[in-house]
Amino acid sequence: MSINRTAVITGSSSGIGLGIARGLAATGMNVVLNGIEPEEQVDPIRRAIEADFGVKARYDRANLMEPAGVRALMAGAEERFGSVDVLVNNAGIQFVSPVDDFPDEKWQAIINLNLSAAFYAIKAAVPGMKKAGWGRIINIASAHGLVASPFKSAYVAAKHGIVGLTKTIALEVAEHGITVNAICPGYVWTPLVESQIPDTARARGMTEEQVIRDVLLAAQPTKKFATVEEMAALAVFLTTEGAASITGTALPVDGGWTAH
């Protein structure tokens, strides 16, 4: 069990982030959830974590598009719990378009949230982790941090950047008991992915089964979605002493996608 440790998980009001938050709470960590949903919408989720695992959970709607918002999230967590021992940078958005039509504001938003927010959160977390002589930083990258797909220039650039950031910070903090790793999921079965299937089917004139097989899972040799629980299990392992020598890595959880 984790004694008096606290994890901040960005983008954790649903999906992968929430799964990781629950996984870390199950080890005894207090957790700080973050998202854009109204507090009253997330409060039942927060209270369920407290009831299920006997830890403290906080929800913070800090705006991660701005450095000041990221700093406020991290400072609030330290003020409430005394430390940030585990940081999971999960928040992200996506937009798909040919580069010549890619809106400037979409590029900037994706870079701000998917890459810059992680940098500012790490910058805020590292001093306390150094002082404690222990810390775990986990960046949720993507298979697109290792390989590319067309029409996703901003997302692929940001996720490649996250992998590079992971390696760089891992080298900087290696002697301070802090590990830094990136998890690189392929397609994960989440409510967000599920909700996109009917629209994609209509747009492409395909059945939903064809969309799953020939569009979403075309690059994943297993032809199966990864699960939120699998992401959480890996994140939890990376916080354990058994993973103390795993740092600076980009770990694919992609059904073999990047083995091509």
Describe the fold and architecture.
The protein is an alpha/beta fold and about 260 residues long. The chain folds into two domains: about 5-185 and about 225-250, 3-Layer(aba) Sandwich (Rossmann fold), CATH 3.40.50; about 190-225, no CATH class. The protein has eight helices and seven strands, in the order E-H-E-H-E-H-E-H-E-H-E-H-H-H-E. A seven-stranded parallel sheet has the order 3-2-1-4-5-6-7, with helices on both faces. It is globular and about 55 Å long. The mean pLDDT is about 95.
Q: Separation of termini?
A: 39 Å
Mean pLDDT: 96
- Count of runs of 4 or more consecutive helical residues: 8
- Major sheet description: 7 strands, parallel
Number of domains: 2
Encode the helix/strand succession as letters. Answer: EHEHEHEHEHEHHHE
Strands, helices and their partners?
Blueprint: E1 6-9, H1 15-25, E2 30-34, H2 39-53, E3 57-60, H3 67-81, E4 86-89, H4 104-132, E5 135-140, H5 153-173, E6 178-185, H6 191-204, H7 208-216, H8 228-238, E7 250-253
Parallel strand pairs: 1-2, 1-4, 2-3, 4-5, 5-6, 6-7
Helix pairs in contact: 1-8, 3-4, 4-5, 6-7
